[in-house]
Amino acid sequence: MSFYVEAMEIINGIKTRLQKEISINYSVQTNGVLLTQAWCDFFQKYNFNVGVSIDGPAFIHDVHRKTPSGLGTHAATMRGIKLLQNNHLDFYIIAVLTETSLDYPEEIFQFFRDNGIKRVGFNIEEIEGVNRTSSLQKDDISARIRAFWQRFLGV
């Protein structure tokens, strides 16, 4: 955290020296596992936009999001989300759609609703960076993605 505090001090010092009104938006994306009260205080002080990566209920999320020792991170991520909520920090979710999640649109919708999560963005799992493969590399996947969205949106 000390790195980020120092960075904010440097940025604010530059803004002051410029003697101009400059608007800067700060954002961070996290899995929420290491969130603490100190981080929440920091986010509030510097008006950070906070994004949390969670893919829905534990049985979906924990398939792909694991600790280095192989344990699922869902419970720890939910602790971080509850901490943000208890501090009245506005946050958003990024959820990755994988082959596993395509069969559970109602459960995903209900999970976010039950947990008071109102801002969700969905990413389609892709091959990028360290992700060398995608569970969505199948011939029939487009129809399944379309069916997921139709069920999720109730159309």
From TrEMBL:
PANTHER family: ANAEROBIC SULFATASE-MATURATING ENZYME HOMOLOG ASLB-RELATED, RADICAL SAM DOMAIN PROTEIN. InterPro entries: Aldolase_TIM, rSAM_sf, Sulphatase_maturase_rSAM. It comes from Crocosphaera watsonii WH 0402. It comes from the Bacteria. This is Putative arylsulfatase regulatory protein. GO terms for molecular function: oxidoreductase activity.
